Amino acid sequence: MASLSGRHHPKDGTSNAMKKIEINKDLKGENQEYAAANRELFLKHGMKVVNIMSSPGSGKTALLEKTAAHFQDKLKLAVLVGDISTNRDAERIKLAAGGVQSEQIVTEKYGSACHLDARMISEALPRIDFAQTDILVIENVGNLVCPAGLYLGEDKRVVLLSVPEGDDKVKKYPVMFREAELLLITKMDLICACDFDPKKVEAEAREIKGEIEVLRLSAKTGEGLAEWYQWIDRLESRATSYE
Amino acid sequence: MHEYGIAKGIIDTVLAEAEKHEAKKIKSIELLIGEFNNIVADALVLNVEMLAHGTAAQGVKLDIKRQPLRVKCAACGKQGEPKEALVFVCPFCDSMAVEITGGKALNIVSIEVE
After folding, report:
1. Is B63 at the interface with chain A, CB within 8 A?
2. What CATH number has the domain bearing residue B50?
3. Buried-exposed string B86-104: b where 16+ CB fall within 10 A, e elsewhere
4. Please, which pLDDT band fits residue A13 given cuts at 50, 70 and 90?
């Protein structure tokens, strides 16, 4: 691994030797190893995995409450929810759909991380019954920046942008939108109260990622949910892994 | 916060390396950071300084080499750097059908110790 190449820099007549140590370590390497192991487990058990990301309060949990209730008798859905503190979101999803497996990852244990990483997923997976899971949905910690850079072993990435957040966010957080396969514009029921142009958001998202799919929905009124459920229904495993 | 986790990874790694080589002091850290990681250098420096306080890396200098974003265009086949930061457009033909071929590195290259 690291090699030592000595260089001598005598300073002020002292014998302090400055040495250069080659390290060449990829800081994402450890995460990639956990992610690859997660991925192997998912494939072995025939599970499809979605990583859902957005800023806090854009409606991830509300959408998952509806989704879990909708699929209750149709397919086996499990949810892993990440938050810095509390089990509130996992409890909400359990309340919305009695039988669904819904487990919380509290990142307080991991230095209050503002994202989920592959190791946290790996350590939470023993709480999920794989035999009772067709689709695992990972609800990431609310944040439009950090989660984008960390591959968890998932098949697809979904990013939410809610109407009250504003239609200028796609270009402000380009990496997040570049890394997603599906963009959900949420809280469409609030469109009358906000200066939000969904066409602009779609156009800017396609500038960043040509093939991104975009759906408009409201968990409150049910607008667009049928299309979202279809998207979940036709989920396929990803052929190649994320970098 | 984004930079904190990365700074923690850097400090943990360099302290372990320094110990392995029985070095008393880490003077500098050379990093290669791809533009795609969207890292604010000042924030990274601040977090490293904070974490280095009271360790063998206290006062360490960061030598940050930036790796530009590179894209390969599916339309014209050329490779290059987009004209604007984090805008995924071919610099030759303005096509948006590009694949990212560079700029994702996040590496500790080397350290200088004494």
Report:
1. no
2. 3.30.2320.80
3. bebbbbeeeebbbebebbb
4. very low
